[in-house]
Design brief:
single chain; 37% helix; 18% strand; Rossmann fold; globular; eight-stranded mixed β-sheet; alpha/beta
Length: 267
């Protein structure tokens, strides 16, 4: 990410949160801003050049930021354990004041993995405050394959090189990793399911998933399509959980055409 990184301060949970962010893409775009919501272990820097290249290629302006607990945003205190509603709280309590602070109205939300779930939750709760959603490899319920690979990530963090690789992208890497890993591996999280909440989505919605996604089956995006009548689904061949790394050109083409083809906003 070569764009200038700035810091916004918002109030949340009785105190201030510092959120790092950067503007990317076409500053003069007439489309609504595209807000990028990263994966469970992601951050602003872990997107690398994809948001900028995506926005430049499609004539869009984008906002990239690190959610609370990630990157150089405020870290999760070591004693704080996230509850099963942590994605709901990001969607309902953290994202709205950040958008207000930055003067962003009715954005497109481009979310990956946990970020895709957060985008869906926001669109369902605030249907008149979003122009559309691109949900990439989102989770709407918990599957055994997801838990198995999150358990594998735990082992790789403790005994492999995952911690060293993530440390390049997070000021407090243990905060970022264990905030995510502990709640996903909590037995109480097995019942997490947001499918019944999605029928409030009325904006344009594109759900994208790789056919070789190691963190979820295609039932995730197919489930979205059964609930949201207007939802479109795209399945990418030879692609795993991170299409912006595995198939960036195809992802950019499909998602960019969807956004610009919908006029940049819902009616």
């Amino acid at each position: 990410m070569t764009a200038a990184v700035q810091v916004a301060t918002i109030a949340w949970n009785g105190g201030p949160l510092a959120i790092e962010y950067a503007w990317v893409g076409a500053a003069a775009s007439t489309h609504p801003v595209v807000v990028f919501l990263h994966e469970g272990l992601g951050s602003l820097s872990m997107w690398k050049q994809f948001p900028h290249q995506f926005c430049e290629a499609n004539g869009l302006r984008g906002l990239v930021f690190s959610r609370y607990g990630y990157g150089n945003s405020t870290a999760r205190p070591a004693a704080e354990r996230w509850a099963t509603d942590f994605m709901h709280r990001q969607a309902f309590e953290v994202l709205p004041p950040l958008l207000a602070e930055l003067g962003i109205e009715r954005p497109w939300l481009f979310g990956h993995s946990d970020g895709g779930s957060i985008a869906l939750l926001y669109a369902a709760r605030f249907p008149h405050q979003v122009s559309g959603v691109v949900a990439v490899a989102p989770h709407i319920f918990v599957e055994p394959v997801t838990i198995a690979n999150i358990e594998a990530a735990h082992a790789a963090y403790l005994h492999g090189d995952l911690r060293a690789r993530l440390a390049r992208h997070h000021a407090d890497v243990d905060s970022a990793f264990f905030g995510w890993n502990d709640i996903w591996l909590d037995p109480a999280f097995l019942d997490w399911n947001i499918a019944r909440e999605l029928d409030g989505i009325g904006c344009p919605l594109l759900a994208i998933q790789g056919e070789e996604d190691e963190y979820g089956t295609l039932e995730q995006v197919r489930g979205i399509a059964r609930i949201v009548d207007a939802a479109q689904v795209a399945v990418l061949a030879h692609c795993g959980h991170s299409p912006h790394r595995d198939q960036p050109a195809e992802l950019s083409r499909i998602a960019g055409s969807f956004i610009t083809g919908n006029g940049g906003s819902s009616s």
